Amino acid sequence: MSATTDNLSAILYKKNDLRLEQRPIPEPKDDEVLLKMHSVGICGSDVHYLVNGAIGDFVVRSPMVLGHEASGIVAKVGKNVTNLKEGDRVAIEPGVPCRYCKFCKDGKYNLCPDVIFCATPPIDGNLCRYYTHAADFCYKLPDHVSLEEGALLEPLSVGVHACRRAGITLGSVVLVTGAGPIGLVSLLAAKAMGASRVIITDIVAHRLEVAKEIGADDTLLMGKVSTEEAAQQIEKILGRQPDKTIECSGAEPCIQLAIQATESGGVIVLVGLGPPKVNVPLVNAACREIDIRGVFRYANDYPLALSMVASGKLNVKKLITHNFKLEETAQAYETARTGAGGAIKVMINCLKE
Length: 353
Ligand code: NAD
Ligand code: ZN
Hints:
The chain is of the alpha/beta class. The protein folds into two domains: 8-140 and 316-349, Medium-chain alcohol dehydrogenases, catalytic domain (Quinone Oxidoreductase, Chain A, domain 1, Alpha-Beta Complex), CATH 3.90.180; 157-294, NAD(P)-binding Rossmann-like Domain (Rossmann fold), CATH 3.40.50.720. The chain is 29% helix and 26% strand. It is built from ten helices and 20 strands. The protein is globular, with a radius of gyration of 20 Å. The mean pLDDT is 97. The structure holds nicotinamide-adenine-dinucleotide (NAD) and zinc ion. The site of nicotinamide-adenine-dinucleotide has 28 residues, from helix 4, strand 14 and helix 7.
């Protein structure tokens, strides 16, 4: 296969049926760029599509290219593109909204009902050699920011958006529940935005060790204690209750704990997406004027995430635990699925050797 026609792509046909196949190299439309793909991180949702063939109402009904945490190098520009040129290294914001609806015009384009989002059925993702994307949803990386860091701007933007929604600022005292990749990027973003203290919980000790290494002030391994007891432990460790809580597990006990642990008048943001219905002490939250806010992906957060990385305010590189080549996609997904070897972020390199 010659380098100019090779577009090896990781295609999910259906549940547990992931194939590496050739697809034609696409032509960029007038407002698009053709990207030679570089780094693509594996997200929990990619693994979920592979294992279950669906997430909620989004069902894989026809073959779909996986991958949405990505970066690449501009190989060709459409005729209207002025912000990028061939050779630019870019981070790819994977959701392109309609730009016309009420939500888009209001700046909340993450809520656009017509958003086209990589690797959300039936839209193809970018775990392939060549991929086209709207040029204005590609962010040029400064020379000293790596393409791996560029790919990590995707989960980091979730953390940045969560912290903005929570109103994290100088001196915030923050509880993060769940120390998976999303909890960890939320921790990094909260610290970089000025939080004076961040405590993070999980049920897996290793994840808390990683959290400590990347800057958590305190950790709490959730054992067999009740959520009320855990809330008391958190208050004891911090010497006060947290004023902001970022829920990043989707687990019912964590949402309960978030309400019990947060200071009156504080804010909880729900990033974790668990079962559709959960049982929570809502009256407790109401009587203590706790604001509970939703978080859906990100909007206008890539530029901030990039400037935080570029300025050295935070370091996302430590989240990468494993690296694979595109040809090793099956192995990469198996590592992400099982969490083998303490996997946090598994990164796939799409460049041909
Ligand atoms: P993950 O599964 O790697 O991390 C979840 C962590 O929570 C794990 O480390 C797990 O051990 C921990 N956990 C589970 N039960 C717990 C409990 N009872 N107490 C403490 N910790 C517990 O997933 P992730 O990739 O980090 O994503 C986290 C969540 O965020 C998922 O629900 C995902 O769907 C969601 N998510 C939401 C958005 C959004 O836009 N809202 C974007 C990305 C991911
Ligand atoms: Zn829209």
